[in-house]
Structures are given as C-alpha cells and as structure tokens.
Prior knowledge:
Elements: H1 19-37, H2 44-50, H3 54-60, H4 66-77, H5 81-92
Amino acid sequence: xxxxxxxxxxxxxxxxxxxxxxxxxxxxxxxxxxxxxxxxxxxxxxxxxxxxxxxxxxxxxxxxxxxxxxxxxxxxxxxxxxxxxxxxxxxxxxxxxxxxxx
Length: 102
C-alpha cells in the first residue's frame, strides 16, 4: 500500500480573529510534514514556499532562510492581544456629552 503525505497550503487571513490558532495548527502540520518526508540537506525555505499561497508568499519573499521566513510569518499572524483589545476599545468608544476632542 502506497501512502502519500502532502502539506496543506497556508490560506489564512491575517486579520481573522482565529488567525493565530489556525497558523499554529498549520505550522505544526508543516513541521510534521517536513519531519516525515524531507531528507536532510533539502532547502527548507523552498519546501515552505511550496506550502504558501500567492498572498502569503508576499510576506516571506525577501527572506533569505527558513528561520527568517518562519519569524516573518509569526510576526504577521501572531498579533498581540493588547493591540486587538485597543482596536476594539477604539471602535466601540462613544464620546460622552460635553467631552471635548482634546
């Protein structure tokens, strides 16, 4: 019986509320794929590029090695919770009567 293992494409909107969770799951699957199928000496950056879509490739196209590319993807998809909460507060804020803009 011949079984084939394939890697899923990273198709996640960075602005999605669950982007961090989805990216973490994708990264775990990608690392498992690399461990099971890729021989030592193979360029991991090229393997990573095969698992990206055009929109996600834009983030890592200037990266020179695998570690830089993973760091860049982490930077894009892992948002700090404080930033998200600050955006929520800004959007939901109502100006009380008598409060000036200054």
